[in-house]
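ARCHIVE CARD
SHELF: 3
SLOT: left
DATA:
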Amino acid sequence: MADHGDGRLRTEGSGGGGDVGGPPAGAGALVVGAEMLLALVLLALVLLAAYRLYLRWGTRSGPGGAAREGQAAVLPRMKRRDFSLEQLREFNGARNPRILLAVNGKVFDVTKGSKFYGPDGPYGIFAGRDASRGLATFRLDKDALRDEYDDLSDLNAVQMESVREWEMQFKEKYDYVGRLLKPGEEPSEYTDEEDTKDHTKQE
């Protein structure tokens, strides 16, 4: 070893590369390797987060959502008929591409609003159900739904007014297809003329 006057010891024949006081040989490569590994881990985490966001939100308006909306556009207009609660449940957008819901005893075809009322939509809980109580009380949970016919008799005046307002909004935006039947009530017979006249009135 020799001291070359700069205060650092060098081994003989090292040509200046064997500094005892500097980092060991290969340490620079180790640091670069660790930085690359950290960058790869961070990239993987970002990609995973983006994929999870896509699964949660992208599929709602992505190809699946577009397919549902396209399917809704090709469905023929539904003929007028009345529904029991059991019959209404068949039209929830999962078992059947058509989506119906009832408000204040009236059934509406909301298929064209499938991004709202479809299985993944924010109001999907109302698909194939009587939505009156949930809309009146501003609740989007199972407690707002009844498995039996709901006469809404326990709602107060403000809530009933809210139900009527929702009914008017649905009449303006969606096709009215019939009535929600009370237990034991017989369905009405609708003629093609009544059906056509009502659809023309709504357009």
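SLOT: right
DATA:
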Amino acid sequence: MTFGCTTFSLVAHQGGFSAAYGTFCMFVWTFCFAITVFIITCEFTHLHSCLSLSWGNFTAAFAMLATLMSVTAAVIYPLYFVQVGCYPIGCEVRDFRIAASVFAGLLFVAYAAEVFLTRAKPGQVTSYMATVSGLLKIVQAFVACIIFGALVNDSQYGKYVATQWCVAVYSFCFVVTVVVVAFSVTGKTALLWFPFERSVVIYTFGAVLLYMSAAVIWPVFCFDSKYGSPQRPSLCAKGKCPWDSQLVIAIFTYVNLLLYVLDLAYSQRIRFVSHL
């Protein structure tokens, strides 16, 4: 909480931010700070007992999400706003931005340490979101958001039916993953008429198959010389090149495929508890 407050205070006071990247970083720091304050308040006052939430699942899911968001902001802010020289922003602004970047890194370390310390240990019965499988669900959804960001950045996914199928795969898996997280966090899994844990394993297996198809189709229709370009076009402008977006999508498709495979492997060894 202290690191988050210090980071956005430094940026708001003198460091400054601009454009979508800076706005995203400020949103991350303020969002994480606000939810952390909410969690601490509920822990001390026991207000969480009045909420329609599975508190163990909620806190575990937030810690993982905050880790991913904070590491993204910790990379983006210094990359776009920190410079070695003082010109043209001035030495004082530069120093504030460097300090904000340091505290942003410490914020990520703090959240990552929380995830490490609170994750489910082998043989321990705990809430689903604290297990490796549950934490991977958050990472999968986060990676899917990166893919969607690249898709809307002039990726030309509508050019072929095959690439549209890949978009359907990304969308379907993202929606179902979010639904799984939502049911876990709200503690409503016991109300379902089907076994939630078994259904999640079946879905994960299906997601592996779907992502395998996308991992084959997307590179072929984007980088094969028959359909796309194996190399980056020399006339492509930086930041506005469809090939760059297609490459990002291809990379994170394989990342998410690996995450779903790991999820499937770990999900065979967990025991689901809905009320923690």
